[in-house]
């Protein structure tokens, strides 16, 4: 597997993009604003979108993607998500008011887009690549994703906060090589992090005590105005784990 980071920030502007990652050439993990930097040729190759949750910074470019390439595709774009997330997409985005319902365009027999439900712990296998939804704890129903090539694995938390079931799964992945985990706020905004069910360094440092695997750790969802401060606060508490800041266009091969 080859995973390319298209966006990993908590906002936009100045070259920052919200969460999106391209797995090989045909799978998106979330579809934030970074998807907009792909060429038309690259967009046409995307067959699947795996969505962690329904918040706009993770789904913003699904409507533009299907609108751009739908009429040029022979098969529908498949969006994989929890039933609650799919319901939110249908009710609030693809509702003929905000955007057309592409599950019915040009018709229900051969639509431009198809929605498929995920469940935590149940793997989807695509050409030998295993994608498994991971437990998550956010303000809306959400998942992370475990990407397993057979040789090695990468785990992505999505948006989350303290959650023992996540670590119970992670610690059982024998071939885990990479962990991408969020910290959306610095410690100065710990109260906001708690209310919005995100991590800040103080919360994240406590969570890392549950990690029993030797993995490379990358921090995502950093807010531009406090990213450096947030990373300093994380490093001060877990310098032995050597966490690194996830970067735009960073590539993982596993």
Summarize the structure.
This protein has about 250 residues and is α/β, with parallel strands linked by helices.
Question: What does this protein look like?
Answer:
This protein has 254 residues and is of the alpha/beta class. A seven-stranded mixed sheet has the order 6-5-4-3-2-1-14. A hairpin with a 4-residue loop joins strand 9 and strand 10. The protein is built from eight helices and 14 strands. The chain has a single domain, classed as Ribonuclease Z/Hydroxyacylglutathione hydrolase-like (Metallo-beta-lactamase, Chain A, 4-Layer Sandwich). Helix 7 runs parallel beside helix 8. It is globular, with a radius of gyration of 18 Å.
What distinguishing features does this structure have?
254 residues, alpha/beta, seven-stranded mixed beta sheet, 8 helices, 3',5'-cyclic-AMP phosphodiesterase activity, Pdiesterase2, RibonucZ/Hydroxyglut_hydro
* Main β-sheet, spatial strand arrangement: 6-5-4-3-2-1-14
Shape: globular
Low-confidence stretches: none
What is the annotated CATH architecture? 4-Layer Sandwich
- How far apart the termini lie comes to 5 Å
**Largest β sheet strand count, sense and barrel closure:** 7 strands, mixed
Task: Quickly count the domains.
Answer: 1
The top level CATH class name: Alpha Beta
CATH topology: Metallo-beta-lactamase, Chain A
Average per-residue pLDDT, rounded, comes to 98
Corresponding CATH superfamily? Ribonuclease Z/Hydroxyacylglutathione hydrolase-like
Helix content: 10-25%
Helices and strands, in order, run as EEEHEHHEHEEEEEHEHHEHEE
Quaternary structure annotation: single chain
């Amino acid at each position: 597997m080859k995973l390319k980071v298209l966006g990993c920030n908590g906002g936009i502007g100045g070259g920052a993009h919200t969460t999106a990652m391209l797995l090989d050439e045909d799978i998106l993990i979330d579809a934030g604003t970074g998807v907009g930097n792909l060429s038309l040729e690259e967009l046409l190759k995307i067959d699947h979108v795996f969505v962690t949750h329904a918040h706009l910074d993770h789904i913003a470019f699904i409507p533009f993607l299907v609108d751009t390439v739908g009429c040029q595709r022979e098969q529908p774009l498949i969006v994989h998500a929890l039933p609650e997330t799919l319901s939110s997409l249908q009710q609030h985005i693809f509702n003929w008011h905000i955007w057309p319902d592409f599950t019915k365009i040009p018709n229900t027999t051969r639509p431009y887009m198809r929605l498929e439900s995920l469940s935590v712990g149940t793997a989807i296998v695509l050409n030998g690549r295993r994608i498994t939804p991971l437990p998550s704890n956010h303000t809306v129903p959400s998942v992370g994703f475990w990407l397993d090539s057979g040789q090695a694995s990468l785990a992505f938390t999505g948006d989350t906060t303290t959650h023992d079931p996540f670590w119970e799964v992670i610690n059982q992945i024998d071939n885990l090589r990479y962990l991408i985990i969020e910290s959306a706020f610095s410690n100065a905004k710990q109260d906001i992090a708690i209310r919005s069910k995100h991590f800040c360094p103080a919360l994240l440092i406590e969570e890392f005590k549950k990690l029993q695997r030797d993995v490379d750790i990358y921090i995502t969802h950093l807010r531009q105005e406090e990213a450096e401060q947030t990373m300093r606060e994380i490093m001060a508490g877990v310098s032995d784990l050597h966490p690194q800041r996830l970067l735009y266009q960073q590539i993982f091969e596993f």
